[in-house]
Amino acid sequence: MKQLTPYGLLCLFYCHFLGVFATDLVVITPSERPPTSASKAVVNNFVSLSIAIHFFQDYARTGSQGESPNTFSRNLLSSLKESTSIAPEIRIGGTSADRTTYIPSQNTTISTVTGGNGIPLNVTLNQQWFERSFDQANFPDGTKFIFDLPLVRNDSLALNNTILGAQWALEAIGKDRLDAFEIGNEEDLYVSQQVVPANWTVADYAARWKIFSTAVTEQVLIPYGLDTTQKWFQGLVFAGLGANKAWTTETAFNANVDSNNSLKSVSLHKYVSFFVLAFSYRIGC
């Protein structure tokens, strides 16, 4: 993957500045070996996107049932790729993804029950939603995806539902375009949302997450031929960015969330006004 180091970014800016305000050609030759105090290289797809699952079809396709590719969205994504030399990564998730049920017999691609805050109380998808939303015609070549699977449900059919979603997603996305599966969304808010008992802890989250990730690995990743020596999961997805000291990267790892060594990255959310910043950290980087 091509990368821009901080030195490279500075040189690009400096050369642009000189090109606008000076007439003489100036050649800058940065050192091939940056000082030890320099930051790590910035990956070119650092400008990437996270889209709530109940909006994704509208961004990727046009028509009430997603009949055609959304060329406007594709053109915007292609412009980003042209600017950075690599397609932006797209994460499909959110609270709505955590509340999604996959229904083979559903006639419409997507159906939602809207809650008071605009976030659906429930989302149902059929397989055609996946086939149309992840059609390669919707995206520039090289686009990779992180797909969020449900964790919040704890009924007898919850695990089967998540496995079905993983199967449909992998069939539509394909091995070459899948970067990772997420399981769950902002689990540190489950207690306040009253979807788990009041005494639910990060250890309970870690235990449930491992059950679900193991099932997805054994029943989806392995049968579909993915190399399980690689890591295929992004985890944590906490909302507080460390504000809740009981729910941090450290406490989750102390609770052995990665005892099966399957996490490639963790994602922490920070809410600024009405925007959400998602910080993803690669494990071992």
UniProtKB/TrEMBL annotation:
Gene3D superfamilies: Glycosidases (3.20.20.80). Residues 1-22 form the signal peptide. GO terms for molecular function: hydrolase activity. It comes from the Eukaryota. This is Glycoside hydrolase family 79 protein. Keywords: Hydrolase, Signal. PANTHER family: BETA-GLUCURONIDASE (PTHR36183), BETA-GLUCURONIDASE C-TERMINAL DOMAIN-CONTAINING PROTEIN (PTHR36183:SF2). InterPro entries: GH (IPR017853), GH79_Enzymes (IPR052974).
